[in-house]
Amino acid sequence: MDSDPVIILSTAGEREARGIAQALVIQHLAACVNIMPVESVYRWEGKLCEDREHLLIIKTVTSNADAVMHEIRNLHPYELPEMIVLPVSGGYLPYLQWLAEETRS
User: What is the pTM of this model?
Assistant: First the structure.
């Protein structure tokens, strides 16, 4: 269903993460975005990389997922930003109702 809650994960530098989070909430594309410092280990273009990044935990609804990813692509400095959409199978109903209300345009 279009109003089913989802979590979208992405990483960015601290300044970029804050800008993305603010844009998503201001535009009602996300109800809330948590930003957490993380250390990432990955392979990019054949090289092992280790970076300090910030993880964005974006709370939104299914109907906004494509728009959220489009906005991340527009604001993100990475050539290939992480964007993973995870379904939410349950939760505290009043919170989930608030999430749905906050993501209505």
Answer: 0.95
Query: Per the structure, how many domains does the chain have?
Result: 1
Which CATH number do you get for residue 24? Answer: 3.30.70.120
Rounded average pLDDT per 10-residue block, the chain, 105 residues: 92 97 98 98 96 98 97 96 97 96 88
Q: How many helices (H) and strands (E) does the chain have?
A: 3, 4
Measured distance CA(78)–CA(98) in Å, rounded: 32
User: What is the domain extent for residue 79?
Assistant: 5-102
- Predicted confidence (pLDDT) per residue in 69-90, tens digit: 999 999 999 999 999 999 999 9
